[in-house]
Amino acid sequence: MKQNNIKIIQYNSAYVEDTVRMWRESKERAISQKEIHSFEDHVFFLNNILNRDNEIYIATDNNKVVGIIAFNGNEINQLYIHNDYQGKGLGKKLLDMAKINSKGRLTLYTFEVNHKAQRFYESNGFKIIGRGHENGENLDDIKYEWVRQNEYYKE
Prior knowledge:
The protein is an alpha+beta fold. The chain has a single domain, classed as Aminopeptidase (3-Layer(aba) Sandwich), CATH 3.40.630.30. It has four helices and seven strands. The chain has helices spanning 16-31, 39-53, 90-100, 115-123; strands at residues 6-10, 55-61, 64-71, 76-81, 105-111, 127-131, 141-147. Strands 1-2-3-4 form a four-stranded antiparallel β-sheet, sandwiched between helices. A hairpin with a 2-residue loop joins strand 2 (55-61) and strand 3. The radius of gyration is 15 Å and the shape is globular. The protein starts with 5 loop residues before the first strand and ends in an 8-residue tail after the last strand. The mean pLDDT is 92.
């Protein structure tokens, strides 16, 4: 992955099908089960529900969607990276956007079966604060929290 080809832009519905396809493929690999919602429902969720309370950004590589993040000042709702682009810094770049735009504290949920995500969030300063969130997939969740450290006390 050449970093200079990747652009992070505000989500635009012109990218909906490419975004949903990438999101579903990434999620299915992460949790080892097929997406339970139809493609059409996923499109509707992205274009009509997720955008109500979240800023949504996508990462593109030559107009191919390779990442998505949806967040607000308090939580990260979604963060998915194309399977071929994982482990190369793109997730951290999107996560840092959410941190910078946060109120100093962010929470998020990840599936307990998604060990790769757990390592990623824990290596980026998130701590486990809860378990067992209900979700449509009927999988156990882990709730994470990140708190901005006081700049004066950095070591």
